[in-house]
Structure formats: C-alpha cells, structure tokens
Amino acid sequence: MTAPTAALVELAVAHGVATEYWNWQGEHVVVSSEVVSDVLAALGVDASTPEKAALALAEHQQARWRRTLPATVVMRAGWTPWFAVHLPHGSGAEVWVDLEDGGQRRDIPQQNHLVEPEWVDGVQVGEATFQLPGDLPLGYHRLCARIGTGPEISVSTLIVTPRQLEPEKLHRTWGWVLQLYSVRSRRSWGIGDLHDLADLAAWSAHDLGAGFVLVNPLHAAEVAGRMEPSPYLPASRRFANPIYLRIEDIDEYGDLAPAERDRVRTLALQARALSEDVTAIDRDTVWTAKREALQVLFRVQPSIGRIAEYGAYCDRESQGLIDFATWAAIADVHGPEWSKWPEELQEPTSPAVVAFRNENPDAVEFHCWLQWQLDEQLARTQARAKAAGMSLGVVHDLAVGVHPDGADAWALQEVLAKDIHVGAPPDAFNQQGQDWSQPPWRPNALAETGYAAWRDLVRAVMRHGGGLRIDHILGMFRLWWVTSPERPTEGTYVRYDHEALVGILVLEAQRSGVTVIGEDLGTVEPWVRDYLTERGILGTSVLWFERDANGKPLAPERWRELCLATVTTHDLPPTAGYLAGDHVELRNRLGLLTRPVAEELAVDEADRDAWLNALRERHLLSNTDGDVERIVEALHRYVAHTPAKLVGVALTDAVGERRTQNQPGTTDEYPNWRIPLGGPEGEPVLVEDLPNNARLRRLIGALNI
Length: 705
Description:
Elements: H1 6-14, E1 20-22, E2 28-30, H2 33-42, H3 50-66, E3 72-76, E4 82-88, E5 93-98, E6 104-105, E7 118-120, E8 123-131, E9 139-147, E10 153-161, E11 173-178, H4 194-208, E12 212-215, E13 219-220, E14 236-240, H5 258-272, H6 283-298, H7 304-334, H8 351-359, H9 361-387, E15 393-398, H10 407-411, E16 421-424, E17 434-438, H11 443-448, H12 452-462, E18 467-470, E19 478-482, E20 491-495, H13 498-512, E21 515-518, H14 526-534, E22 539-542, E23 563-566, H15 575-579, H16 582-589, H17 597-617, H18 628-640, E24 646-650, H19 651-655, H20 694-703
Parallel strand pairs: 3-10, 11-12, 11-24, 12-15, 15-18, 18-21, 22-23, 23-24
Antiparallel strand pairs: 1-2, 4-8, 5-6, 5-9, 7-8, 9-10, 13-14, 16-17, 16-19, 19-20
C-alpha cells in the first residue's frame, strides 16, 4: 500500500474523499493512494499521476469562478445565507428569485463583502456577494442573475427546506416490522401481496391497537430473467414491484370474458399451491404466473373514467415513468442487464432507444400500466390501514441504492458513479466488510442537476404511506465506496451535502405528512445523530446494540425518545434464533468469521447473559425462567419500558420463527430474502392464522402500549 501524497490528499479533500478514517475497533487507517485515485476517477477526476492530480486540483479551484451562480443553493426557512455571483470584474448584476408558485422576489440585496478578483482563462473575474431573505416560502425555486444589461440570464436551483419536522407531536404507538413477501395468505399467489398487507394492517389496528406496519422496500425488481430476491438491491427505487399486486383487486378483473377469467383462475390455483412450501419463496414461478394474468387484464378495454385516471397518472410521473417502462420493455427482449445490451441501446436518450419505444408502444405501455395498478393498490392499502385506526399506517422502506444493471442505473447514468460500489467497512457483525453492489450517487452531479433525481425518488416513496424508513441514513452524510468487489475492505468514505439531501427529505416529508425514521446503526460520527434529531428525523435503536459507556445493556430510561425501538433487525435471526446462537453458527458455516468460532460463541454467550441479567434486575424475568418464549416477551417488555415514540415488533418474533431472513456478506450461499413466515416447528404461518395465534397475542399483551 502506498500512502497518498500531500497533493493527492488536498485534491481528495476538495472532492470530499477521505484519505484516513477510524475503524470500528478504534484504529486509525490511512487509505492507499490507489484507492483514493480510483474513487476520484469515479467522480470524473483524473489523479492517475502526480501531474494530472495537480492539474485536476487547479481546475477544481477555478471551476467556481467560471460559473455565474452556484449549481444549487439549499437553505432552511428563516436562514439568510450569502451566495456568490461571478461576473467580469467591474460589472454589475441583477439578481432575483422566480418562486415555485409563479411569484417573484427581487429583494436580494448585495452585501459589502470584498473578494479579490481572479484571472480565469485570461479574463479577470470578480465575485459579488448577495443575501437571500429569510421569509422565502418552502419549495423549489429558480435563482436568476443577469450580468449588466445583456439578455442572457443565468439560472440555478434554490431549495428552501423546513427547519425541522415535529416528531414530538407523534403519539406513542407500536407496530409490526415485517418482510411482506414472506407474509402469505390462502388467497395470495405464493407470495405476500398488497391485499395481504391491507388485511394484516386492518386487523392489527382494530384488534390489537397497532399504529403502523413497517415493510421491506417494495421497489421494482427485474421483470425479465431471474428476479433478484433482495429488496435492498432493486432495479428502481422510484417505482414498485408488480409481484406485490393482488390480481383479483384490479378493476378490469370484473370485465374479463369467461374464458379469460377461467385462465386467470387456473393460474391462481397453481400459484396458491406454492404457499404450502415453507422452505423458500419462489419469486420466478410466482412472477411467471402473475405476469401472464396481468397481460390478460391489460388487454381488457377500460372505461372512459379509468382511461382518464391512467392518463393523469402518466402525466404526473412523466419522463421518469417512460424511461422505466422503456428499460423494462427492452429487458424483455435483451435481458435485464443493460450493460450487455447492444451498445446503441445502452444510452436512454439515444436514437435507437427512441426508435425501440416507437416500434414497441404496447410493450412500453404495459409496464406503465403495471405501475399505475401498483399506485392504486398502494393507495388503497394505506387508506384501509388508516380507516381501521392506524395512526401512521404503512411505513415504507427506502433502500440505500440500486442494482448496477437496473432501470435507475440505466436512466440516471449522469448522476451515478460507474465501476464502483457502495458498501460498508468491517464491523463487529460483518468483519470482512460488505459490498452492496450498488453504484453510488455522484455528489457533484446531484448538485449540477438540482437534486432532481433525489427529489423525484423521495416524493414517490412517500406518496402512499404514513412513514418512511431510510436504510443506512448515514449515507446522506458519507458512503463507503468499494473499489474492489472481491475485497470490501478496499475502499474509503465519500462525503455528501447532507444539508441538501436531508433538507429535501424533510421538505417532501412535511408536504406528504410523513414521519421519517433514519436507520442510524453502525459506525456513526457523533454529531450525525444530533443533526438528524435537530431536523426532526427519528433514529433507530436495536436492543442488542444498545450499550452504555461501560459496554453494559443500556437502561431503558436512557434510550432515545425520538426513535423506532426494536429487539432485533432483519440482518439478525429472529430473537428465538439469536438466543440460541444461530447467527454465530451460520456465519461459521459460511466462513464469515474472522476469529475462532469458540471465541465468537463465548463473546455471544456473554452478551446474551448480560441481557438476561438486565431483564432479571428489572424483574422482567425470573431467575429460574429459561423458556425462550418468556425471554422473548421479557425483551419486548424491556423495549416497551423505553421512552421510544415507536416500538417495532418483528412478526417473526410473534409467531416463534427462528430462521434468519438475511445473512450479510452472502448471495446464494444462503437463501437470503426467500424465507416464508413459519412457526417454531417449521410449519407455515399464513395471514388467516394470525388472529388465533396465542403466542402472538401473549407477546403483544406483554407490550402494554
């Protein structure tokens, strides 16, 4: 490993690339010059030689002087920030704001702030400083400048965000945490769907007093070839997966001709039989059946009202929907990996792509129509949850990134880095690091485009829910960029403009009336949680990770109030399995441990004993009670004794499931994201079974919330 030179360090810092960091064991790590250069290259900066690095640094220092206005200005309501206007030295500038609602503000005063001019490309360029007023309305505006009396107007994006959301007004409640695909019913087609979610939500609200249901990301996956099982590696985060549609709930189902209806019923019977298999979810077989049924329904002539509603949906989603549907239609012909398509189809705006769309209008429209059906069923699901009494209803989950060969990676190439992945450095539970195989946002490109892709994404995932969980929200501050897929430890952190990313998140949440939960586990810089609290974003507290300064279980009264508190998480086994040490045995079997298994088991046993002692000290568990169900109940009572605004209960814990849903660091070595809901003896548990599940009712009764 070669340490970066001083010049390379300066260039890296200018682009937000870390050249050193502290790892999970408190050790100082210097990032190699090779890794730093590779990361800079992914940002479009050539630092392959000392000479090129020096040239890139000089270019970066002059870049701001070459543009009249900043690419994007983000401010909070009430702030009065200064911003720079660059112009020929000695010239004057007229500056104003075109408001989102069509109004205009011209009270943008110039400040008496002297900045020495710079020579740029043979021209002396000056810098004038202006101040924005603190009473600008929230929203997305245009910051405009005219130099002198010329006709040319420079424009950039101005985003005014709320100071904070107000989670303290949230009523304390509990809710389910579940993987929707695993929660099947006797009427679903071998996989949990949106009707199952609505039924579960309505029953839980009315009978059990639940306030929310937190589900896995429902993002779109591949529609051709093998469907990626991980909901955290989607083809698109903006659009949803049609595998979650309940076929019989589509309006046009009632208009099917007898022969068509019989065919759909036959497909349904075949798919429903898959729910008898408790070993694994078979997405590909399910999707094959559902897709055939959906194509039958797509050919039904809709009413004039339905045609109008579909048109309104397409108008709202505009080019983003067209791009997604085009990707899906091309994938049906050439496979889901766009990097292997004919070269002329790899660019979304190419003439060949336009020609394909024009030549295959029905294929493209089919995928637009699928997204409309999802939009309708998602809206109906949230409406049923709220009508039954849930305070929040459905809480959706936003994955960190997307599949490198998926729809978003194809359509958003200008704002995503190439040939590099997002991941995580080693930590206590994943000691070899993680490569999530996802292309990261390029922070400079996001700013250049006014964060349009981020705005569209956040607005879409908030549309039909009462809450939004942000997986790895720390990624809005910095992300671990992996330069070698074979070695996730080979990487470094890249900084993001968190004021912009979080600000837009808060703005869209306020407009949608959504509560935001940030998954802030892992290696966290101390100030980050304070910042998120300041913006009104709830954190995440998982019992197994909550420790005091001495490493002992954190007393419940010392937990955060503004958080979602749970006993476990989807990256660990259900609590019954965790208590048995299943996670250690599984990681050992898969070769994921970096220390001897005996040592790992000893550490795990000591950790478990510490929590059992904490339960006994609080009189939540008797000294002689070693029954797993009683311990699970006691752990949940411990969490219920915290001041946390939201308490989450894993549905797997409620029914006694032991199998882990996901083992980080693996793909097909373990059936990740394919485990259907089952009971303690391995028997299938369906939605219809839940009301009469005594174990479930005892656990919820123990919460007393």
